[in-house]
Amino acid sequence: DTAADSPVPGVLYVLMWVWVPLASLLFGPVWRAVNPLRTVHLILARMGGRDPRQGLLDYPAGWGYWPGAVLLAAFVWLELVPADRGSLPVVGLALLAYAVIVIMGALLFGSRWLDHADPFEVYSGLVARFAPVGRRRDGKLVLRNPFDGLDSIPPTPGLAAVVLVLLGSTAFDSVSGSPDWLRFVQQSAAPSALLGTLGLALVVGVIAVAYVTAARAGGRIGDGRSRLPAL
Q: pTM for this structure?
């Protein structure tokens, strides 16, 4: 096989988009346990005589999961938009950029950066909240209602953005495979990558607007208010 026909990129996408979430759903946040970049960061921190939990700077609390949401959006864009997304050079460059951003961020902010910025750890950890196996406060593993884990998610900046990226990219994946979309792209004079980028952003934006509208409506119902929210 040539580099263009290599199955490696396809395997990577299937692994990160299907098997990691499935394993996380069944067994918990597996990517945190097997993440090779976490191991690299641990080695580098030990070599520098530093606690891997500590970085040169404190991780800003206001950032929350926003770095993870941004990097996750970049990953789904790579998977869904570029025509050459299956080529080894493109995938290799993307993996290199991902590794550099995650490792440099971890050295700067400590392992908390990995918790909040590594898109696959964020994704895996979120899906793991639905796992039927959980830990009690004493650390013992127990079977639980899969929805019980959602109650333990603290409200954190950027968490909703992660969910919206996941929902929006899944919706766009369906739209971009439809005959109408393919016909539109083929008949348009604009580059397909530009149309795909705008389409992905539009779908995520529509879902975000629907989410904000529903949240505000739910808040007004909950506190008895009927006035329109301020823009």
A: 0.83
